[in-house]
Amino acid sequence: MTRIDIIPFAEGEATLDWIGLTDALAAGHTLPKAEIADTFLYRGDDTLLNRAAWIDGLGLAVKSATIFPGNPANGDPMVNGGVSLYSDSNGTLEALVDFHLVTKWKTAGDSLLAARRLARPDSRNILILGAGTQGRGLHSAYSAAFPDAEFTVWNRTADNAKAMAAEIPNLTIAQDLEQAVRHADIITSATMATSPFIKGEWLQPGQHLDLIGAYRPDMREADDAALTRARIFVDSLDTTVDHIGELKIPITDGVISRDTIIADYYNLDKFTRTSDDEITLFKNGGGAHLDLMTSRYILDRWRTRR
Known about the structure:
- This protein is α/β, with parallel strands linked by helices.
- The protein folds into 2 domains: about 110 residues, ornithine cyclodeaminase, domain 1 (2-Layer Sandwich); about 180 residues, 3-Layer(aba) Sandwich (Rossmann fold).
- It has 10 helices and 14 strands.
- Helix 2 crosses helix 3, helix 2 packs across helix 10 and helix 3 crosses helix 4.
- It is globular and about 55 Å long.
């Protein structure tokens, strides 16, 4: 009988490390390119989203998310779900993994892989834009790769920034966004902004800008000047260029072209910094293939735990 592992959040997270995950993501991109597909079902305001991926040599995964906007009024989480991970050899179910565990580690790990290759190794000042769940995950991830860094958080709602700072020792709250951006070595942004609020004129030589928040065609976090001043990289050309406003809008407007983008993770050797002064920009678009790679890493670590 096939062994099926059920991996909950806390117990699963205890087995993981951020550097190991980024190495697993890098290895996953040496395999044949993933096949991915998304499907949606609706009932009024409620949604079921299924994101599926198949990578030859790594297996299959279906990440299901239920989004029920009315849940918070009843004390329940708005977003729930799970990840079903299937064997590459025979398609049998191998594991059910907590949805929030995969999402947290996939999202921050995706950005950390780029930062390990594009940010200056001597980066010491890291600015987190957005004090939500992802902001907390980014602090954990970036701390692993830049252990000597000092962290600052900025959030449009000050009370949320204060709450995050109360949870994380030595986390400073930025009062002035422009000055915080100018002072940072790495800026990592995970907000729900629809209009650009990171100004290219604020960016300084040698910075690395990590953009996570925008996921719809009408959403952006950085303005045109930021994109034209930076060398641009993405996790996947297929899931970003034609789907996310961060790139789709400036390409449509002729500000940049598709050829402006240096590479995605399937050309990871091109993820290099050519000088200490250049500005690098990474757009984190996510994608079911990254959920699969992350879930496989989680299962591997789960099965080797002591």
